[in-house]
Design goal:
The chain has a domain at about 15-75: Winged helix-like DNA-binding domain superfamily/Winged helix DNA-binding domain (Arc Repressor Mutant, subunit A, Orthogonal Bundle). The chain is about 30% helix and about 10% strand. The chain is built from 4 helices and 2 strands; from the N terminus they run αααββα. It has helices at about 15-25, 35-40, 45-55, 105-110, and strands at about 60-65, 70-75. It has a two-stranded antiparallel ribbon with strand order 1-2. A hairpin with a 2-residue loop joins strand 1 and strand 2 (about 70-75). The N and C termini lie far apart (about 60 Å).
Length: about 120
């Protein structure tokens, strides 16, 4: 099978890092291997490893070698860290207060919308 080339003569990218990122949603378990990616995207393991490395460079996945294999997992986005909003009215509540009256008596209504 002949691969397509771009106008510059370079081979056109057929497997993108985003394609590889999507494999994490389809594989059972918290980690993937380059073999998982290669099988899911019908590409070589070398291509899968290169694309996983790109995702790792971008801070979207991390890796570790274990038992002679490299496993990859998703990492939390560094772009949206968990920050506390000091202006949130929550901080004005007395300790132990919920801000709602009689919440403990209507917990099912609060949690399940009255069902």
């Amino acid at each position: 099978m002949s691969r397509e080339r771009e106008d510059t003569g370079r081979y056109a990218e057929t497997v993108t890092p985003e394609d590889v990122f999507g494999v994490f949603e389809t594989v059972d378990g918290p980690v993937v291997t380059s073999g998982d990616v290669a099988e899911a995207l019908d590409c070589s393991r070398d291509t899968a490893r290169r694309k996983l490395a790109v995702l790792e460079d971008r801070g979207r996945v991390a890796s570790r070698e274990t038992a002679g294999r490299v496993v990859w997992w998703l990492v939390e986005s560094r772009e949206m860290p968990n920050q506390v909003d000091p202006d949130d009215p929550f901080w004005e509540l007395e300790p132990g207060a919920s801000g709602e009256t009689a919440v403990s008596e209507s917990v099912d209504e609060v949690l399940y919308g009255g069902t």
